[in-house]
Design a protein that fits this description.
33% of the residues lie in helices and 19% in strands. Strand 10 and strand 11 form a beta hairpin. The strands form five sheets. It has a six-stranded mixed β-sheet, with helices on both faces. A five-stranded antiparallel β-sheet has the order 14-13-15-18-19. Strands 7-10-11 form a three-stranded antiparallel β-sheet. It has helices at residues 2-18, 29-36, 87-97, 112-121, 133-138, 143-164, 173-186, 249-267, 275-288, and strands at residues 23-26, 44-47, 55-58, 77-79, 102-105, 126-129, 191-192, 197-200, 221-226, 228-230, 233-234, 237-242, 300-302, 309-312, 326-329, 332-335, 339-342, 345-348, 358-359. It is built from nine helices and 19 strands. The radius of gyration is 23 Å and the shape is elongated. It has 370 residues and is an alpha+beta fold.
């Protein structure tokens, strides 16, 4: 893996050279991990004009915790003395000392105060914006990244499958969410990829619902959204079930509608497809059924080292899909006071000749009565 990280840093160095930037300071944790293999809390990467000037600056010694990752052993690592110096400020000083005259920083990640401190530490450096250069490199995943995503998805499916075999009536949303997160870790996850959502009855189908003390009741819709983190990579799954009894007619109709919309968006995933077209494939089905005002601003997004990455599937999204880009497709409809349905999968965009979109989360989407 050491060569993989070196190659990634090399591609970023080439981008910087084309832009006329002598050095770069990477501070966004996911970007640091992508380029180095690890993101200890507070760490920054100084990317020099050549590989010999690269260094990972940490405020504390790395612990080796799987959540942090393991840094490229070929990359110099400096642990700052316990004086509280900001690694970004220290990095700017090193860049100046190496003879650099410009330093690209991730302006969107730095606070105003931190940006000013970096500039004050090296006043002869001209600061420029690195922008989304690293995020653009991260967009298309390599084989190792996709393997991590597949394992994360397998762990997630296992945890959800076990929950479906347990007794649910009478248990609280909060209890079920905690159990799911425990099961993720039991099956090998670093931890949950994001806070697990369990929503029952009138809460079901709500986007980003926080589990409450409401107890599961017979006849409820039960919506679950969870994901595992594995070696830094995250996946996402969302499913909706009915509790105890055969579903009511309105539940069947709403479920079939969301299922149809999700399938349309999944089928639209292909290299060259416009981001907005993927959104439109699902949205027009929900709009035509009269639920346009119940649909969120986007119907999916990229996924990887962060739970929400580019691309974004929304009506105004600009850009086209590439192969080997993992994404989510997650339409949902919530009816206030009644509940709703959300279906969410993680897939990898593939050429039609390679079988089309690769579905990573395989738990059934049949409307089960649990």
């Amino acid at each position: 893996m050491s060569q993989v990280y070196a190659d990634r840093r090399g591609r970023l160095r080439d981008r910087c050279a084309v832009a006329g930037t002598a050095a770069a300071l990477v501070s966004r944790p996911a970007n640091v991990r992508y380029l180095t293999g690890a993101a200890p809390p507070g760490a920054v990467l100084l990317l020099g004009a050549d590989a010999s000037a690269d260094v990972l600056l940490c405020p504390h010694a790395p612990t080796g915790d799987p959540v942090e990752g393991r840094a490229d052993e070929a990359l110099p690592l400096t642990v700052l003395p316990p004086t509280g110096e900001d690694p970004a400020v220290a990095g700017a000083g090193l860049a100046l000392g190496s003879g650099a005259d410009t330093l690209a920083v991730e302006e969107r990640h730095l606070s105003v105060a931190r940006y000013r401190a970096v500039g004050a530490a090296a006043p002869r450096l001209r600061l420029t914006d690195l922008g989304t250069a690293v995020e653009q490199e991260r967009l298309v995943k390599d084989d190792e990244e996709l393997t991590c995503l597949r394992i994360a998805a397998e762990i997630t499916d296992q945890a959800l499958g076990e929950l479906l075999e347990s007794i649910l009536v009478g248990r609280t949303e909060r209890h079920l969410a905690l159990e799911l997160e425990r099961r993720l870790v039991d099956h090998g996850a670093d931890g949950p990829a994001f806070p697990t959502s369990v929503a029952t009855g009138p809460h079901s189908g709500r986007e980003r619902h926080r589990p409450s003390d409401r107890r599961v009741e017979e006849g409820d819709f039960l919506s679950v959204r969870l994901g595992a983190g594995y070696r830094g990579y995250r996946c996402e799954i969302g499913r909706t079930f009915v509790i105890g009894t055969a579903p009511a007619d309105w539940q069947i109709e709403l479920y079939d509608l969301v299922f149809t919309a999700q399938r349309a968006a999944r089928e639209a995933l292909a290299p060259g497809a416009a981001y907005s077209d993927v959104d439109r494939a699902a949205r027009h089905i929900l709009d035509a059924a009269g639920y346009g005002d119940r649909v969120g601003p986007r119907l999916g997004h990229g996924i990887g080292l962060e739970i929400e990455e580019d691309p974004q599937f929304s009506p105004a999204a600009m850009g086209k899909l590439d192969a080997c880009v993992p994404v989510t497709v997650e339409p949902g409809v919530h009816l206030p006071g009644r509940g709703g349905v959300r279906l969410d999968d993680t897939l990898v965009v593939r050429q039609e000749a390679d079988g089309g979109p690769e579905l990573l989360t395989i738990t059934t989407k049949e409307l089960l009565a649990l």
